[in-house]
Each structure stands twice: as C-alpha cells, then as structure tokens.
Amino acid sequence: MGFPCRRPGQVPMLLWLLLTLAPGREQSGAFPKAFLLLKPPWSTAFKGEEVTLICEDDHSPAQRYTSWYHNWAFWKAGSGTIQIYKSGRYTCKTQRSSVSDPVHVEFLSEWLILQASHPVFEGDDVHLRCRGKNEEDINEKIYYRNKKEIGRRRGSKFTLHSVSQDNSEYHCTASGESFWRPWEETSKPLKIQVQELFPRPVLRVSTSQPIEGSPMNLKCETWLPPLRSHIELQFCFFREDKVLGSGWSSSPELQIPTMWSEDSGSYSCQANAVTPNIIKISLRSWIRVQRIPVSDVNLEIQPPGGQLIEGEDLVLICSVAKGTGTVTFSWHREGTERSLGRKTQRALSAELRIAAVREQDAGRYYCAADNMHGPILSRRIRVIPRIPASRPVLTLRAPRTRAMVKDTVELRCEAQRGSPPILYRFYHKNVTLGSSSAPSGGGGSFNLSLTTEHSGNYSCEADNGLGPQRSEAVPLSVSVPVSRPILTLNPAGAQAVVGDLLELRCEAQSGSPPILYWFYHEDVTLGSSSAPSGGGASFNLSLTAEHSGNYSCGADNGLGVQRSYMVTLNLTEFSTNKVIHITVGVIGCLLSMLVLAASASLVSHFRTQRKSGGLPTTGTPSYSPKEHRKPSWSGPPRTDPQRPTPCEPPALMELEPVYSNVSPGDDNLVYSQICSSQHSKENPARAPRTHWKDEEPAIIYSEVKKAHPDDPEGQAHEDAAGNYENVSCAPPALDC
After folding, report:
1. Interior CA angle at 357 toward 355 and 359, to 5°?
2. Which of 114, 150, 428, 583 could join 678 in a cystine, given CB atoms 3.0 to 4.6 angstroms apart?
3. Can you give the C-alpha Rg of the chain in angstroms?
4. Which of the four pLDDT bands, split at 50, 70 and 90, describes residue 580?
C-alpha cells in the first residue's frame, strides 16, 4: 500500500487507554453482530404507515429462528422479517450472530417529519428527506444541523457526505403560502443512527509465552457487514510502538520466525478500511519470551562495608553466577518504591554509581537480576554515610524575657545535621564554660547561674570527629533590678515657699537601664521622667499652697517597681513680697529692747489713768491675740498719689511701728503688739531669692507687770511665769 502504518502512539492518549484497558465483546471470541434492515429504508414515518424489519447475519437473511427485542426487552421469536407500527428501539439476534445494533423507529403525527436513510455505516453518505403531509403546498425546505442551516431544497433530498458516529441533531422547516399568507412548519429533531463499519480488531497469538528461539504467529481478526463486504481492509502489527514486518498488508496474519528475549513486550494490531479511510486498533497483548533463568545474584559495595563520608561516591556492583541472554539488572533501597537504576545488557554483571551520597541515602541496599523469568534478589547490605556536624545554633533560655542576676540560664546548642555522637562545647567570650555530649544526636545543654559578669557574647561548638563547627555569637545582657530610689527636694523642704520652682530628684543606686521614674504627691502621680542610660531623673514643680504634704517617687526598669521613702514638704503661705516680711522680722528683733521699755511706760500710764477713772480697763484701742484686727498704716493719706495700690509691691511702702494694747481678760496683764517694716529703696522682687531667709516677721507681745494697790507707786509685781510670749503674726496682719 502507499500509506504508512499509523503507530499506536499516534492515537489520542485517552482513546489508547480505553483500547488498552477496556474489555471488549470481540476479544472474547463472540459471533459477529446481526444487523437490521428497514423497508422502506427510513427510520421515521407518519402514523398509520407500515414499516418492515429484516434481521440478517453473515450468511443469509434469517429464515429460521430469530429473537426480537423492543426497547431492550424480549418481544417475540419467529421469522426474520416482521411488520411494525409502534415507535421504539428494535434489535434482533440469530443463532449464528450476536445481538444487532439497535434501530430507533418513530411513527409521528406531526404535519412535517425529517427522515434519514437506513442502514448507515461509518463513512457512508446519508440521505435526508423533509416530508410534509401535503407536499404540493410546500415552496421551500431548509435543513439544519445542531440548529445551524446546512442547505435549502424545494422538493429533492439533501445528502450528507461521509458521516461518523456523533451526537449531532438534525431538523428541517417547510414554508409556503395559503390565501396569500405565508406559513412555516418545523420537524421534530432527529439523530442519525450511524453503525460501525467493522468492529475493533482482536489480536490472536499462537502462544503468549514462546520459548526463546522459537517462531510465533500473530492474527488480526475483524469483519465487515454483508452489505459492505466489498470494502478492502488492510492490517498492520506492532510491538510497543514499533512496526513489525513490512507495514500495511491485506493479510490479517504475520509470522515472526524467531523470538528472542528482547522481543518480549506489548503487541497490538490495526485494521484500516481503504475507502472510506477508517482505522481501528486492537487491545494490547503482553508476550513474554521464555529463557534460561539467572541464579546466585550478588551485590558488592565500594568502599567496602558501606562506610563512607557524605559527599563521596557509592558504587553498587550486581552480578549473577548463571543465566543466558539479555539480563536486566536493577538496584534498590529498602523503603523506596522506585528502583535506583536499571541496566539491560548481555553480561553477567553490571554496576551503578551513586554520586555524592547524602544523608537520605542511608539504608539497606540490594539488587535484582531478571532475564524474563522473574527478578532474583541479592542479599542486603547496610550503607550508613557519616555526616559532618553542621554549624550549630545556640539558643539561650531564661525564665523571663530579660535575664536577671541569680537567674539560671540554659545554653542550648544543636546541630541540625551530623552523625552521632556529637560533643558540644560552650564558650563565653571565647572562654570555655563546659561541654555536653549527645550520644544519639540532637542537641546539648549547659546551665549557668547568672551574675553581673555574665553579660557578653556566647557561642558553642559541635564536633563529631569529622571537623568542629562553631555557632554564631549570641549576646546576653544580664539585667539588675532597680534598688529603692532616694528622693531629694531642691530647695529643701524647710526652705521652699510658695512660688518656688521645686526640683524633685529621684535616683536608684543600682539597676539596669533604661529606668523610668514616677513622681507622686500624696500618692497622686505628678509625672514621669526616663533615664535611658541609668542614673537619676528630675521633675520640676512650681509650688502653690496646695503642694504641702508627702512626696515620693518610684523606679521601674521592667524588672519590678521600687518606691522611695516619703519626704515631707511644709509650705507657709506668704504675700507676694517676702522682702517686707523679712524686714519686719529683722526690725522687730532689733527694736525688742525698745518695745519692752515702751511697754513698761505705757502700762504705768494706763494704770494711772484707770486709778483716776480716765480709761476703761481693756484700753483703747486694743484687741485680743485671738482676733485678726488689721493694724492701721501710718503714712500719707489715701489721696496721696505715692501711696501704693494693692497691686504694687509692699516693698515700695514705708511702714512705721504701730502699737496696740490688748487685755485678754486678765486685768493684771497688758500686751503690746509691734508691727514694723523697713523701707526699701530697691524693688525686692529683683533681689536674689537666696538672700531671703525663711523666717516669719517678729511680732512681740510683752507682758507688763501690773502694780497692786498695796505696792508702792511705780513698782510692778513680777509674775512667776515667763515675762514674754511670742505669737506668730498671720500674713494679713502684716499688711499694716
């Protein structure tokens, strides 16, 4: 023939798998199929019309016993020719055939039907006929496949060329005019029943296990239906995807004169109808050529004993003591499904080299030899590649996030790879701390109780005799909790007054930075300050009268908060100008002697007037020390432009002593209050604060002796109690 064999490999993969795996009725050697003929040869008819079914096989029309089936159920038995009037699927079977392909016959009541010729085989031309009940009324017929127009006709048939088995649907429409009005009718869809031209071929072999050196016959069996017996078939044979013999031949048989072991494999055949060009492939048949089996399979390993270091080459040598022909050697490792390698050669030994052996290559190795009698296995040899220790990883495990003094830290060193045993050494600043062994592999640990000297870089080393490996350095910072802080006030509590800028200084003597300091007044948080590098921190506070009380501070570096002891601050509320108050106190002290003398003279004078009835006993003006009577200013009148207003500093006013006598109810005691202020020519607000002393203005009450009537005039009776009493003067009394 003038065309090449089509190799099995050229068949679509899915179809080839189906042909290889799916069982077929033809493969079992059943009779050829019967076939059905229709008379008239149309699968669709109008209701009321008669259709005749004829069942035939390879020999002749079935005049003897024929079985009939309707819709897959047994219908009747009898003659090979019957008449039908009912729609459905019909099949038949004779004594010399298998069941025919079904024929779907429909009887329709529609006005328009689409008919297809029957029988139709693969590659045939099919005639379609669009038929109406009143053909003379039809002007035009249109034919459709899968709802797409394929042709227009007026009254003749429509022909489809070289059809194949598919699921296409066909229908037609007819149109015309009635009383000058157009009309159109549509037929019911139709599927063309295409039968296979010949069944898939079956490969027959004289024997499936020929002896090496003997011949073997192959036969490719198929058949054509009697209606197509004139078609010529060609045949071709294959081993795997290799063409055998001369290629396509009209003979369905092929003889192989001598079979060798390498001829074992999968065999198949193809059948091809020349016109039309239809190719079908048989299922595969496995043929194994028998030969003298191998024996005494042995495996050798280099280096001997299977002791090698990771990265070296491993050589596996497989040999047989007996065996002929081509031997297939294969090498395996336990636990692995796929072989490590395979070689087929006419020799009694073969070797396999595994380059750069790795850790996962460890295991028990063996080989197999096979010359078509089944594999023979060798003994197993264990191979253990020794693996140098990898670079270890050092981890530090502390009981808390920040390691503290007295904590116990675990130094864990582990090499991810390496053959055991592994010795681990631990270093602090390259000074050996100790070692730990891992007999079965894994990691090793070393515990260390921390002191302040243990901050620094740590590392470890792994050694299994194939070269030590050093880890990267890991820093460790040993943290020290803060000690109880000390709070100091500047200026000191005894010197602070309202309006001062008070500095609160908090400092912990020990503790790892950073340290956060908190400042409290009567346990109310004032603020915070950080010391990133350690040491103390300050907080500034502008003092008011409400800032008297207890102060404290806290220190925290994340390892626990420490609170200082309380520091008390006492503040006295003064007027805005302290210069006047201090000056008054100083003048009062300097004039104390003069006050005493003046007081004695006044007492003598009042007593003389009382005896004469000139003055009341309490004196005028006078008040008790418990009263808060403001003394009067001596100075220019209110209209004097130089008199200070309340907004002017009192230091600009010149004050003179004011004296008043008080009697607390005891006629025997007389007190004098002296309030004085020193005139200042410069603004005291500009004077440095350090020149002022925290002293209250001196207000002196002097007890004056009262003369008894029995005493001689001019003589005072001296009380056993103290002669003088100093009482603090409230700030409003100093405005005089």
Report:
1. 160
2. 583
3. 64
4. low
Transcribe 71-111 into DSSP letters: TTEEEEEE-SEEEE-S-EEEEEEETTSBPPPPEEEEEE-SS
Give the Cα separation of 537 and 539 in Å (integer): 7
Q: ∠ CA(621), CA(622), CA(628), 5° rounding?
A: 115
Determine the Cα angle at 118 with ends 112 and 121, to 5°: 130
Q: How confident is the model at residue 17 (pLDDT cuts 50, 70, 90)?
A: very low
3-state SS, residue 19: helix
User: 283-316 burial, b for 16+ CB within 10 Å, e for fewer?
Assistant: bbbebbbbbebbeebebebeeeebebebeeebeb
Q: Nearest CA to 384 among 366, 367, 361?
A: 361
- 509-514 — which CB contacts under 8 Å span 24+ positions? 509/483, 510/480, 510/482, 510/483, 511/480, 511/481, 511/482, 511/483, 511/555, 511/557, 511/559, 512/402, 512/477, 512/478, 512/479, 512/480, 512/481, 512/557, 512/559, 513/557, 514/557
Take residue 735 and report the two structure tokens written for it: 């405005």
Query: Tokens 């209606």 map to which residue?
Result: 227
- The residues near 498 (Cβ < 8 Å, ≥ 6 apart) are 543, 544, 545, 571, 572, 573, 574
pLDDT band, residue 283 (cuts 50/70/90) = very high
Largest separation between any pair of C-alpha atoms in the chain: 187
Q: Closest Cα to residue 476, out of 446, 506, 502?
A: 446
Q: Which residues have CB under 8 Å from 230's CB, separation 6+?
A: none
- Give the model's pLDDT for residue 424: 95
Tell me the one-letter amino acid at 176: G
Over the stretch 196-224, which tens digit does the pLDDT of each residue have? 889 899 999 998 888 877 899 999 999 88
pLDDT for 70 equals 94
Lookup: tokens for 285: 């048949």
Angle between helices 592-611 and 578-590 (to 10 degrees): 70
Per the listing, tokens 């399979």 go with: 297
Q: Does the model's pTM come out above 0.85? A: no
The DSSP-derived string for 577-628 is -HHHHHHHHHHHHHTHHHHHHHHHHHHHHHHHHHHTT-S-SS-SS---TTS-
